[in-house]
Specification:
Length: 202
């Protein structure tokens, strides 16, 4: 319940889904996905909201209980935040590998996305003292717009757009690391309930 109370009152967290959707729309536009089709998407808003709820409450929450809530928490006891993040990324990628085998280009972009999103999620999870609900919101916000938009446009456009999204998130990840690089290289916590230093600005 602490997770739910904190996410309810941290109003700026609502910016995460808005930011993710904006970046995705921009990426599909840049990928040549036909700007004239975007107004029609407003009529599918209920479907988007339903998809978002699924990716936050089911996919995001269940995965984040494992990736950040369990694995990251334990890795930070014995590894620096940067190394812990780089360990989680390939494990996360391997978890999705069966559905990536049919498209090598998409799989390569997804692999980079796993590194980028692991970095962002490590920062969020650490900044808010291990609040899994926030990680689930961010996870779902990454997923839902991509899945929604990919269903509206040809596969080639979707892969190009996904590449742009990952590139933009990559710049965000680099900025997060650069803004507090000493934290990313700090010694392991070594305690079961170690206090994690802020990784991003409040």
């Amino acid at each position: 319940m602490d997770d739910l109370r904190e996410t309810r009152f941290a109003l700026w967290w609502l910016g995460i889904p808005v930011f993710a959707m904006t970046i995705t729309l921009l990426a599909f536009n840049l990928a040549g996905a036909g700007g004239s089709a975007f107004p029609a998407l407003l009529g599918q808003l209920p479907a988007l909201l339903g998809l978002f709820a699924f990716h936050v409450l089911v996919v995001g929450l269940l995965e984040e209980l494992g990736w950040r809530g369990w694995l990251l928490r334990r890795l930070l006891l014995v590894r620096t935040p940067l190394v812990a993040t780089l360990i989680i990324a390939p494990v996360w990628f391997a978890w999705h590998l069966p559905k990536l085998l049919s498209d090598g280009t998409f799989a390569a972009v997804f692999a980079l996305g796993a590194i980028v999103n692991s970095t962002i999620l490590t920062a969020l999870w650490s900044r808010f003292s291990g609040r899994t609900a926030l990680s689930a919101i961010a996870h779902g916000s990454f997923n839902a717009p991509i899945y929604f938009m990919a269903d509206q446009f040809p596969d080639a456009d979707a892969v190009r757009a996904f590449s742009i999204v990952v590139s933009i998130y990559g710049l965000v990840a680099i900025a997060i690391i650069a803004s507090n690089w000493r934290w990313w290289l700090k010694d392991p916590a070594g305690g079961e309930d170690a206090k994690l230093a802020p990784a991003i600005a409040a």
